[in-house]
Structure formats: structure tokens, C-alpha cells
Amino acid sequence: MKRTKVAAIDVGTTKVCTVMAEIDRNDILRVVGYGVAPSGGLQKGLVVNVNEARESIRESVSAAEQVAGYKLESAYVGVTGRHITSVNTNGVVAITRNDMRVRPDDLRRVLKITRDVKVSSDQKLLHVIPRNYAIDGQPGIENPVGMHGSRLDLEAHIITAAITSVQNLTKCIRGVGIDIDDLVLEPLASAEAILNEEEKDKGVVVADIGGGTTDIAIFKDNTIFHTAVLPVGGYQITRDISIGMGLPFEMAEDMKKKYGNVHPANQDKDEFGNAPTTNGHNISYSDLSEIIKVRVEELLFLIVAELPQSESTRIVPSGLVLTGGSANLSGIAELGHELTGLPSRVGVPFSLYGVSDALIDPAYATSVGLLQWKERNRGAKNWKTKSGIRQFFPRFFRNFGK
Predict the structure, then answer these.
(1) Which of 150, 158, 233, 251 is deepest in the core (most CB within 10 A)?
(2) Residue 214 CB: number of other CB atoms within 10 A?
(3) Domain ranges of the chain
(4) Pairwise CA distance, residues 14 & 48, whole Å
(5) 394 pLDDT exceeds 50?
(6) Distances (CA, A) of 339 to 113, 240, 257
(7) CATH top-level class for 85-159?
């Protein structure tokens, strides 16, 4: 049976995760290996020490290869960081043929015009995602090829990234002998792993709360509406615990993972018992939870601020889906609902096969989503390629880091 090999590398602020999988002729994706290593040389999603970051990637890749039983040659790689910018833009072309029929060449022309936006010299295009076509002012057309009209409009979502940041990341990946199949904005990848089609169609917010950043993607009408990267994440929660309770950072992180709860009122214990601070005193459970709750509330307000305030319920009736490692904090979905008034849930990767049990966790949404991004982009039914023009999208960063 013929199998297609595919892999993903998520280089995060706190961990590097490599996942290797195979797609059989029935389009079933099976995980055959994965490896997780602590991150070194990264801050807020950016490489700050190439050597340390490269070694973390090498350790993660090596662990995945040992489980899979073969060498990893290329992978899809997630991109994040505060250098990411996005904008919705429009393009228009005239249809001047006698039959007034839209052809694939017209899609090339309107796409070229739409992506011809002013980008600063230190930025490059990462994604150009068609959102909506219109013919002679009639919007909401998914595939205009074959239709008749004199004017073709395209609204697209354009995402850019800092050249130097992407170069540093690709240098680290290629430094361990791995080619890059494509670079994907991380919240777009995470959405592939945790959302269903109904949520994307009705309207939903994905917030991937990582160690150094919170990556946001808003979907509406089965396409991307807005993306953003906030330079705050789980690191800030741990730092507040460390400072507020006088704990070493590593101990604060351990306490957050073991006992953290953003809804302390739902718990009936008052302290940790055997969790001494550096001076030997027990830590108050309520104090710890209060520190976490305050920071998570601030983060939720920042997430909601990315929505048009007067239209949030109409734009995203499916609500808020929280994922990433910090989404494992107990009570976070309930707090999200209380503060935003939107339906809220924790997003966990689903429809996984193979040696994937450990990956069914919000912390691995991006890693799994990168694999599913590959699978989804093989066909023309994808929201990114629903017009059947996948072949017209260059991989803008293929030569970065060489």
C-alpha cells in the first residue's frame, strides 16, 4: 500500500515538538513518531540564540525518528511572533472577452493585484488567502470560474512576517538537515486540529495560548476573518506566580501545572500541603489561584479586544475555543464564558490514529494541525484553495535561510 510521508515541527517558546506521520491511499493520516524537547534560544516565539534553538530542534527530531524508525527529510513548520501582521485587502479586474466568462487566468490576475500591497522592506508575504469573490457586485461567490460578468472582485486575507525572524527559524531547521515543505502561521494550523466545519462557517475565535505568545485566528463563513499574535502567554502567568509567591521560576511553573485553577471557588482545599516555598512555608492554594485568575482575565480581555466590540456575538456565535498548553488550566473555559458571554471550550486535537495518544492534548494543537494543513491543502475544497487555484500560490519563503 502506497503511503505519503508527512511531518511537522512546532518550534515553541517552551518546547519543540516534531510529529511524523503517513497518509495511506484512503487518505487516513496515522502518526508514526513524535518527539518533544525543551526549547532553548527562543523568546516569545522568536529565535534569540541559533545554536541553542538548533540543538533543541535536533533533540526533538531525533526522538521522533527513533519512534518512527526512519530519517526525517522535510517538514511543515509553524511560524509565530509579534512580527506577524495581517490585513484584509481587495483587488478587481475587468472581464473583457466577448463571452464575458471568468476563466482561471482571471483568477491569476485578480490574485496578483490583490497581493500587490505595500509591504515594508523588512517584511515578506507568508499567506495570501482568498476570502470572497464577487462578480459585478454580487458577493459571496466561492468559485467564479465559468460564471459570466464584466468585473471580478477578490477580498483576501494577507499575512506577512519579518524576513529576519523567518530566516533565523529556517536556518535552525535546515541546520539539522531538514528541508521545509512550507511555513504556516500557527493559529491557522491549530484551527485545523481542533475546529469543525460548522464552527468555521458560523464564526469562531481560536486562541492558542502558548508559552510566549497567544495566537489568534477568527473564522467566519468557512474562511479566515482576522489573525493576530499577542506577545503574552503562559510565561507571564508563571512569572507572576514566581514573583508574587517568592518561588523559583521552575517551581512556580510546576505549581501552576499541578494545582493551578482559574476557578478556585469550585475547589474545597485551602493549601497544597507538601509544596514548600524556599523558606519552608506552605503555599496558599487560594493565593496561587487568584494570581493565575487575574492574569488569565487580562489575557481573555486582550483576546476579545481583537473582535469588533459591538458585533462579537453576531460574528462568532460559535464562541471561543482555547487551546495551547495554558488551556490545560482548570476552569479556563468557564472563566472565558463568564467574561466574554460567548460559548467557550478547550480545543483538543481529534481524529488521530497511530501512536498519537500523548498528542491528544491542547499543547499539541499546532503540531497536529500542521499535519492536517498538509492533508487539507492537497485538494481544492480547502478554505484556502476553495477556488481551485492552489497552484498559483508561491511558497514565498522556500529559499529563506539558504
Answers:
(1) 233
(2) 26
(3) 85-159
(4) 13
(5) no
(6) 41, 21, 23
(7) alpha beta
